[in-house]
Structure formats: C-alpha cells, structure tokens
C-alpha cells in the first residue's frame, strides 16, 4: 500500500511539474505530496527496506545532497562581519534609512524559491529510491519516466510544427518547455529500455506479446525524443550531449553481452571515448569568451558581463533574473537572456561551487557505471544514472534547461531509480535483525552482535533524518501557500505593489505605459500616445494609501535590486512630500539597478526632471542627462513621454532638457516649447524633498 502511494505521489509531482512549472500553488502541491511520502517512508517502511536505503545512501551521496542546501542557507543568513556581504545591502540601507543586515544573496525571495526548488527535487529523488528498491516497481518507474519524456518530446514537436498559437487557443496558454533536457533524458531512458528488452529476448529465446510491445514502445520513444532533439536550433550541441548519455548505456550493454572482462571493458570504453571526441569537434565554439558560455547558442552579452563582475561566493541562488536589468543593453529583447546552466551556477553560487558540481557529476557517472558493470542483471538502471549524469554535465555548458523545475524533477527521479538499483541485495542485508552468531555458541557474547547493532543504529538514524526532512518540506509548503495570502511579505509581486503601480501610473503617466501598470520590461504601450497638453489635462489628483510606501519599502528590504520598485517609491515620496526618504537616493538606485529598461524611462523622466535642481548632486544630473540623450538619439518612440515629463519638470529640469535638445535637435525644442502650456496656480508639482544626512547610492 505504501509503495502505491509513493508511486502516485511521484507520478503526480512530475506531471504537475511539467504542466504548471511556474505556479506557486503547483509547487506547494508537489512539496506537500512529497512531504507526506517522506514522512510515511520514515514511519511505515519496513526495517529491511530502510537498511537497503542506508546501504545506497552512504557518506558520498549524502554529502552531495546536503552541501548545496547548506550553502544556500549560508547565502540567506545575515553576516555579522561588515563588508563580507554584497554591497547592495549597505546601499539599500542608506537609501531606506533603516539598518539592513548584509547577506551573500542579493534577493532573499529568489534564493528562498531556489531552496524550495532544490529540496523538492531531493525529496522526489528519495521517494523514487524507496519505490525502486523493488525490481518490479523499478521497471514500472522506468516505464513511467519513458512515457513522460515521450509525451513532452511529442508536445515539443507539435508545438514547433503547428505553432504555439494553434496549440493554445484562447487566453489560456499551454505550458512552455524551452529546454532540451526532457528529450535528452528520454533518449537515454528509451535506449536503456531497448537494451533491457533485448536482454529479456536473449534469455527467453522467443518474442512474447509483452516483449514485443515493450520493444515497440521503446523504439517509438527513441524516435520521438531524437526527432525533438534534431528539430531544435541548437541540435548539434544537444545531440552530442545526448550521444554521450546514450553511448554510456550502449557501452554497458556491449560489455555485459559481448566484451566482458578487463580488456573488453577497456576496448569498449576507449572506442566510445574516441567516437565522442570525434563528435565533439563538430561543436561550434565561441572564441575568446568564458568557458561557461563558449557553447551557448544564444547571445550571451549580459551573461558575460555578469561573469566578469561576480565574486567567488556568488550572488545568491536564483538571482540571475534580478541581476539581468543591470547588465542588459538598451533596446535588448524583452524576453530574458538565456544563459547556460554552468554560467548561471557560476554567477549565483560562485565558480568554486560550479567546479565542485562538475567534479561530482563526473565522479558520480564513473561510480554508477562501475556499479552497472558489476551487475549481471538489472545493470541498465545504474547505466541510466551514469548516462544521465554525463549528458547533463555536457548539457549544462549548452543551455539552462537543467535548472528548470520540471526537468530537475525528471532528473531526480532518474537518479533515484539508478541509485536504488545500483547494488544487488544480499540475504544478510535484507534480514539484518537475524543473529549472526554461530550455532555452536548460542550463548556467546562479544563483537558478533556488532552488525545487528550497526544496522539498528543506521535504521534509527535514517528514520529520524527522514522525519526531520519531512518537517522541513511541510514548512516550505506552508511558506509557499503563505506567499499568496500575505502579499506584503517576501514575494514582491504583491497586491500592494500592484495597487501602487496602478495608482502611480494612472496619476503620473496615463499615456506612456500600459494600462495594466506593469513596470517590468516590455511595458511600453503599443497604442498611440497623447501629446503633452493632453497628458497634462488628464492628470488626476494622486490619492495613495499611506501604507503603500511602507509596502514598497518592505519589499525592497528583501529584493533591493528591483529598479521598478525603487522608482515607484521615489515617485510616491515626491508626490506625498514625504521627509522619510531621500528622493534623489531612491532615484539613483533605480538608475543603478535598472539602467537600460526602456519601460521605466517615462516615469523616471517625470520624477527625475521634477527633482533635479541646481543644488542636486552632479551624479544625479549626469544620470538624468543620460536618459534624455538616449531618448533624443536612440529612442524616438519615447519622445511623447519626454514631452510629458518636460511639462511637469522644474525650472532646472527644463533648462537641462533645453540644453540637450539644442545640442541634438533644435527642431524638437521648438515643437516641445509650442506644446507646453503654463500650469495654473496651485497645480505645480511640490518642490523636491531632500533630507540631509541620507546616504547616496553607489
């Protein structure tokens, strides 16, 4: 009964991971199911199964599982030594005028979500290991994983052939699987299933209906997964990674059937290595670039800048997206740049951690291949783990698919299957409670009881460890659910923040941003924009709840790299004439954390031109001049937004724009002067609020 529940929990978790990968409720469901599964394993699993699990999870696998979690925890905890954390915390503390503890991560929420992602994958790997301890369950799990990979590969082929719009009519888009990991792992799994079908055919010496069905399904899965790989733009890179994984499985099959022995193993492995190196020469490699992005098929401009500026300790797990606005070029595509997984790990966790991960992948592949060659039957399971580890290590240098939630769950299930069947159980291990004393000495005392005691201690320790892990999974499930109920907390996509966006955009720039008030990249309105007079006439009175600036400030305490939130807080502080914050410092942080986001230009120009004065810092004036120059020289579509900002600007702000416009475009100055009307008494914007003694952004 327990095995059936664990299998259902594993099945539902992987299915939900592929169907709804980015929905917090879906991740909470996966975490809850796996928490129940781990807790049930700790309580109801038999002692013999726990002993077999202990034999699989020795020191080396446990270190592999625990070290990343410990390092992410270190990134989250406050650092008592001043200057050891990321400098953004000191800068944000000065701008918000509150003490903030320094941390290694630059975004607490992103690192927390990465921690949840990792712990969910580890939990699924443990559940898969417990399920696959039984040979029959292991075969069922293999069939299930091949089915998942085949369905995803077929979906990718249909999406490419028919188009995304055809497959997702209406307003409900279907999930998008961007990486090649499911197809590559599916090819490794189908190759292993085919090899096992041939093994059964050799032993049975005849083809039964069940065997023919299995072989046909394996060949169909191979065809679909291979087609999905070859249909990709980076098919050469992905195919070579898949070739490495499949080659290890086929090498294990050849050694077990035809070349068993030291010399036979050496010849097969040498041949496989030569073929792979020959295929490796076909890879297109970027010259004079970082090794982690040398094999990338996507333009790695921003990623390369991040790699140059990242410290050895990293910026925090899951923070790549938060760093992207700082390093992206002006006018870059709205869709985020896709780095390789190796580059993302080097940026977020540091290069030493990346080198450790690659070393562990190579050693793990070698260890699982050795386990596969030591077994005469059921060797394909360990070969699957070896091939998957090698293929994923190669694929990490090509794309970032292995970091996706769905792909990581599929990979975790594969490694759980491989570890569970990596060893052959003996009678002593299966029945550890039986006495090991000789029959001739029934009453003897001494060290002969040590094996039984060792097994008992190991069993108790494993049960306690699984119970503690289940409690941690329950806690993270509660945290995921609390994100939706308490929007003012860690997740900064808050209802309060959304309301603040709506109010500010309706009040300040009704024509320059989208109607939904989204200040993230891609927020420019496609509709025709109003001229300066129309924009001025439609300016409503700003009415913002007093708690809104507090909600923004609380969000920035957890995610200080959000340039849109810094800008909204600056706009609210200026409009409400708040003396709590230094508007200039908030503006500068908006410039530094999102310098090239065109969606922020309209509102930022409005606030900055009203804030700049002769007494303003030279640094702020230079930043404002930079935005104006970009609009005049490179972004003519933002001219109406500049006109609206010019209308509400201070005298010094208008003078700054006049000077730059005269230098760039005298005709634009004449047009702008004609459009601007003198505001009536009582409608002027409040003077800039400056508070002495506040820190400046650096």
Question: What topology emerges from the helices and strands here?
Answer:
Layout: H1 2-19, H2 24-44, H3 47-56, H4 59-76, H5 87-96, H6 108-131, H7 135-162, H8 164-167, H9 181-204, H10 209-230, H11 235-257, H12 262-280, H13 301-309, H14 320-327, H15 341-349, H16 351-373, H17 379-395, H18 405-420, H19 427-430, H20 450-485, H21 495-508, H22 532-537, H23 547-558, H24 563-575, H25 583-593, H26 601-611, H27 618-633, H28 639-647, H29 651-664, H30 666-675
Helix pairs in contact: 1-2, 1-6, 1-7, 1-18, 2-6, 2-20, 3-20, 4-6, 6-18, 7-9, 7-10, 7-18, 9-10, 9-11, 9-17, 11-12, 11-17, 15-16, 16-17, 17-18, 21-23, 21-24, 23-24, 24-25, 24-26, 25-26, 26-27, 26-28, 26-29, 27-29, 29-30
Q: Quick recap of the structure?
A:
The chain has 30 helices and no strands. It has 698 residues and is an all-alpha fold.
Textual characterization of the structure:
The structure is a single chain. With 698 residues, the protein is an all-alpha fold. It contains 30 helices and no strands. It has helices spanning 2-19, 24-44, 47-56, 59-76, 87-96, 108-131, 135-162, 164-167, 181-204, 209-230, 235-257, 262-280, 301-309, 320-327, 341-349, 351-373, 379-395, 405-420, 427-430, 450-485, 495-508, 532-537, 547-558, 563-575, 583-593, 601-611, 618-633, 639-647, 651-664, 666-675. Helix 24 runs antiparallel to helix 25 and helix 26 (601-611) runs parallel beside helix 28 (639-647). The radius of gyration is 30 Å and the shape is elongated. It starts with a helix and ends in a 23-residue tail after the last helix. Residues 169-174, 427-450, 485-545 and 675-698 have low confidence and may be disordered.
């Amino acid at each position: 009964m327990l095995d059936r529940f664990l299998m259902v929990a594993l099945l539902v978790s992987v299915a939900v991971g592929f169907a709804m990968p980015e929905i917090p409720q879906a991740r909470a469901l996966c975490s809850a199911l796996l928490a129940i599964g781990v807790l049930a394993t700790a309580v109801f699993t038999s002692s013999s199964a726990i002993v077999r699990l202990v034999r699989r999870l020795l020191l080396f696998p446990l270190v592999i599982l625990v070290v990343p979690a410990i390092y992410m925890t270190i990134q989250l905890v406050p650092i008592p030594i001043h200057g050891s954390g990321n400098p953004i915390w000191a800068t944000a503390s000065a701008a918000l005028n509150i003490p903030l503890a320094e941390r290694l991560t630059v975004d607490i929420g992103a690192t927390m979500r990465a921690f949840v992602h990792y712990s969910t994958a580890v939990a699924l790997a443990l559940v898969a290991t417990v399920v696959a301890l039984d040979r029959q369950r292991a075969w069922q799990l293999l069939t299930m994983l091949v089915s998942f990979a085949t369905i995803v590969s077929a979906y990718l082929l249909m999406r490419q052939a028919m188009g995304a719009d055809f497959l997702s009519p209406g307003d409900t888009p279907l999930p998008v699987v961007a990486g090649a990991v499911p197809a590559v792992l599916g090819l490794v799994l189908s190759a292993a299933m085919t090899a096992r079908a041939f093994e059964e055919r050799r032993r049975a010496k005849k083809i039964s209906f069940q065997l023919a069905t299995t072989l046909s399904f394996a060949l169909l899965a191979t065809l679909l997964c291979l087609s999905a790989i070859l249909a990709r733009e980076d098919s050469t890179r992905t195919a070579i990674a898949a070739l490495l994984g499949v080659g290890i499985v086929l090498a294990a099959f050849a050694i077990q059937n035809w070349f068993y022995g030291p010399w036979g193993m050496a010849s097969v492995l040498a041949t496989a290595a030569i073929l792979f190196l020959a295929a490796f020469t076909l890879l297109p490699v970027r010259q004079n670039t970082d090794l982690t992005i040398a094999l990338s098929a996507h333009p790695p401009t921003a990623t390369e800048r991040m790699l140059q500026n990242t410290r050895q300790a990293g910026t925090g797990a899951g923070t790549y997206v938060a760093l992207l606005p700082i390093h992206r070029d002006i006018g870059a595509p709205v869709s985020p740049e896709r780095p390789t997984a190796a580059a993302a790990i080097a940026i977020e966790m540091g290069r030493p951690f990346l080198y450790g991960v690659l070393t562990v992948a190579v050693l793990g592949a070698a260890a699982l291949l050795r386990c596969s060659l030591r077994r005469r039957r059921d060797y394909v399971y360990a070969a699957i783990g070896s091939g998957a580890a090698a293929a994923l290590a190669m694929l990490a240098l090509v794309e970032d698919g292995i970091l996706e939630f769905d792909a990581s769950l599929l990979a975790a299930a594969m490694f759980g299957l491989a570890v569970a069947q990596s060893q052959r159980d003996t009678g002593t291990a299966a029945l550890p409670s039986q006495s090991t004393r000789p029959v001739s000495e029934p009453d003897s005392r001494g060290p002969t009881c040590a094996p039984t005691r060792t097994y008992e201690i190991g069993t108790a320790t494993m049960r306690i460890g699984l119970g503690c892990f289940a409690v941690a999974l329950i806690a993270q499930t509660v945290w995921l659910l609390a994100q939706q109920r308490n929007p003012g907390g860690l997740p900064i996509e808050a209802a309060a923040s959304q309301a603040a966006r709506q109010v500010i955009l309706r009040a300040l720039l009704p024509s320059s941003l989208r109607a939904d008030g989204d200040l993230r990249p891609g927020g420019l309105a496609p509709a025709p924009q109003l001229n300066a007079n129309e924009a001025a006439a439609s300016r409503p009175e700003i009415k913002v709840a007093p708690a809104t600036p507090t909600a923004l400030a609380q969000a920035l305490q957890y995610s200080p790299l959000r340039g849109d939130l810094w800008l909204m807080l600056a706009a609210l502080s200026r409009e409400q004439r708040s003396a709590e914050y230094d508007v200039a410092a908030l503006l500068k942080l908006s410039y530094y954390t999102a310098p090239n986001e065109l969606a922020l230009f309209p509102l930022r120009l409005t606030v900055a031109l009203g804030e700049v004065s002769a007494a303003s810092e030279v640094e702020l004036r230079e930043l404002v001049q930079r935005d104006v120059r970009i609009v005049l020289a490179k972004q003519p579509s933002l001219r109406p937004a500049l006109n609206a900002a010019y209308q509400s600007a201070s005298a010094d702000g208008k003078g700054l724009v006049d000077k730059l416009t005269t230098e760039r475009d005298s005709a634009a100055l004449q047009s702008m002067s004609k459009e601007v009307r003198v505001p009536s008494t009582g409608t002027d914007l409040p003077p800039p609020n400056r508070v002495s003694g506040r820190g400046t952004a650096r």
